[in-house]
UniProtKB/TrEMBL annotation:
One MF term in the entry's GO annotations: zinc ion binding
Cofactor(s) needed for function: Zn(2+)
Enzyme Commission (EC) number: 3.5.4.26, 1.1.1.193
UniProt name for this protein: Riboflavin biosynthesis protein RibD
Positions contributing to NADP(+) binding: A158, T200, D204
Classification of source organism: Bacteria, Pseudomonadati, Pseudomonadota, Alphaproteobacteria, Hyphomicrobiales
Originating species: Rhizobium glycinendophyticum
Length: 362
């Protein structure tokens, strides 16, 4: 095997390791790190839940003395800043690592090449860019927030075989099967926040929590776009706000049910529009936002160019008369999106569409 093929094989493993903590590391990216000595993995690390410790010191600790002369594979440039933990680049130097292979440079202005410089100045051989595309995809949320000042937006749509998102006045109707629902719960768990419009909140009275065995604590913050603060205090969202946070994005000086909702622990945030809201979310460290409906919110986000990925589920149900048409179906893909992946879940199909160009960073 060539060195590049070996590097790619270990980096693939480091990326797979990083994926295990996506959505659990707060505003920090989930980074994977492997320490490899004589072709053997002697240390493994992934950014801990909450964001610290970082991946590298954990992998180095596991490697112990074996780290001397070894190669480190890291999905992100090792940090150089004195944050809540000492710089990872210095820890790598101190451990006597001979070579570092990095997938993606870190756009965080506190790091931004400085980590690589610390390594090079210590005469460590540095290879950058191995499996860059795959690693960028694995850190899409973090990189989008750092470079665009907003979270990465994933739009999830469940569409009937006749292209409908639901039926007027019918509340939640079954469009996809349980296999798809499980997958949607996994996507929720890997996201930092979930957003719906008030129309969906009123029509469906959803909970928007993660309900998978063993993952009950993984529910991200739930956000409702609700210009007039109309979310009923009796809704499942409002009633559970003390268990899983709810943020209501309202127009400046909206009154509505504000008092009652605040009393239930719902946080009210005044925003001037979608872009403003996304900016506020990014400032709070929210890197990935999953949008679950409805048609209006999906249409507005698409029209403003604020959607990065679409998870399009197509079920075999037929809605017929009174259906709410989806802005996207299998037959009608929005301009500028390409098909990345297609899979089946039970009787449903899921397509993942990605926006092009996938930005300078993704
Ligand atoms: C690494 N390894 O595993 C991660 C890194 O708030 P702090 O001090 O933890 O710093 C957060 C920054 O650290 C984050 O913006 C990114 O630049 C880097 N994340 N770096 O060396 C890791 N998660
Ligand atoms: Zn670090």
């Amino acid at each position: 095997m060539s060195i590049t093929a070996i590097d790619e094989a270990f980096m693939r493993e480091a990326i797979a390791l990083s994926l295990t903590h996506v959505g659990r590391t707060g505003s920090n990216p989930s980074v994977g790190c492997l320490i490899v000595k004589d072709g053997r993995i002697v240390g493994r690390g992934v950014t801990a839940p909450g964001g610290r410790p970082h991946a590298e010191p954990q992998a180095l600790a596991e490697a112990g003395d074996e780290a001397r002369g070894a190669t480190a594979y890291v999905t992100l440039e090792p940090c150089s800043h004195h944050g809540k933990t000492p710089p990872c680049a210095n820890a790598i130097v101190a451990a006597g690592i001979a070579r570092v292979v990095v997938a993606v440079a870190d756009p965080d202005p506190r790091v931004s090449g400085q980590g690589l410089k610390i390594l090079a100045d210590a005469d460590i051989e540095v290879t950058i860019g191995i499996l860059q595309k795959e690693a960028r995809r694995a850190m899409g949320g973090y990189l989008t927030r750092q470079t665009k000042g907003r979270p990465q937006v994933t739009l999830k749509l469940a569409v009937s075989s006749d292209g409908m998102l639901g039926k007027l006045g019918a509340g939640q109707i079954a469009i996809t099967g349980f296999e798809s629902k499980e997958e949607v719960h996994r996507l929720r768990a890997a996201s930092d926040a979930i957003l719906v419009g008030i129309g969906t909140a009123l029509a469906d009275d959803p909970e928007l929590t993660v309900r998978l065995p063993g993952m009950e604590g993984a529910s991200p913050i739930r956000i409702v776009l609700d210009r007039r603060a109309e979310l009923p205090a009796s809704s499942k969202l409002a009633k559970s706000a003390r268990d899983v946070p709810v943020l209501l994005a309202v127009a400046p000086s909206a009154i509505g049910n504000r008092k009652a909702l605040e009393g239930l622990g719902v946080e009210i945030v005044e925003t001037t529009g979608l872009e403003d809201l996304l900016h506020i979310l990014a400032e709070r460290g929210i890197s990935s936002l999953m949008v679950e409906g409805g048609a209006r919110v999906a249409g507005d986000l698409l029209a403003q160019g604020l959607v990065d990925r679409i998870h399009l589920y197509t079920g075999d149900a037929v809605v017929g008369e009174g259906g709410i048409a989806s802005p996207i179906t299998r037959e009608f893909r929005p301009a500028g999106f390409v098909l990345l992946e297609e899979k089946t879940f039970g009787r449903d199909s899921r397509q993942i569409l990605e926006r092009l160009p996938v930005s300078a960073w993704l």
